[in-house]
Specification:
single chain, about 190 residues, alpha+beta, 8 helices, about 10% strand, elongated
């Protein structure tokens, strides 16, 4: 699971604190960076290193929204659903994300490109409703239409990055929204 060097790194980090448990958050983030999320074996290892039970570690993970116990897509979009964003339409924005990806919040899009997560306050109240993509891209003043546009852009970026793009998977990820109705051609 961990190399000897990685384990030594974590042990050295933990040794800087007066109590082992103080290094738990760092260790959890380390495991998440390594595996994409915190796996059961990595949770057990952090428990062993920090003298915290797996239940106590799960409580930490539940509290810190940037820690994950489940796999996520290659992109992570956190959409704020706190009061400022909620009153300015976050619910409709989140519904648009579910409709566009065809997946419930927290699930991975069919092509693996994205996971959309509701998030407690991102501190972007002046740009509500707002989202944070991959911890480095901020999107504010979201609307359902803008959400679909952003998800389409992310899917297109996936096509460009892919050596052998599977266009059908990427295209099927996005469900057409507000498509004009086809004219009804009745034979008279």
């Amino acid at each position: 699971m961990l190399t000897d060097q990685e384990r030594a790194h974590l042990e050295e980090h933990i040794a800087h604190y007066p109590e082992k448990r103080a290094g738990a958050i760092y260790c959890l983030y380390f495991m998440q960076d390594k595996y994409g999320y915190i796996t059961k074996p990595s949770l057990n290892l952090v428990s062993e290193l920090t003298d915290l039970s797996t239940t106590q570690l799960d409580e930490l993970i539940t509290f810190y929204t940037l820690l994950r116990r489940r796999p996520v897509g290659r992109n992570i979009m956190r959409v704020c659903d706190s009061i400022s964003c909620h009153t300015r339409g976050a619910k409709k924005v989140l519904e648009a994300a579910e409709n566009a990806t065809g997946k419930a919040l927290g699930e991975i899009a069919n092509d693996g490109s994205i996971t959309v997560l509701p998030s407690i306050c991102l501190g972007l109240c002046d740009r509500a409703p707002a989202a944070l993509i991959n911890d480095d891209r901020v999107e504010g003043e979201l609307t359902p239409e803008r959400m679909r546009m952003i998800l389409t852009e992310l899917a297109e970026e996936e096509i460009k990055l892919s050596e052998k793009p599977d266009y059908q998977n990427i295209i099927s990820m996005l469900t057409p929204q507000d498509a004009p109705a086809k004219p009804n051609k009745e034979v008279m």
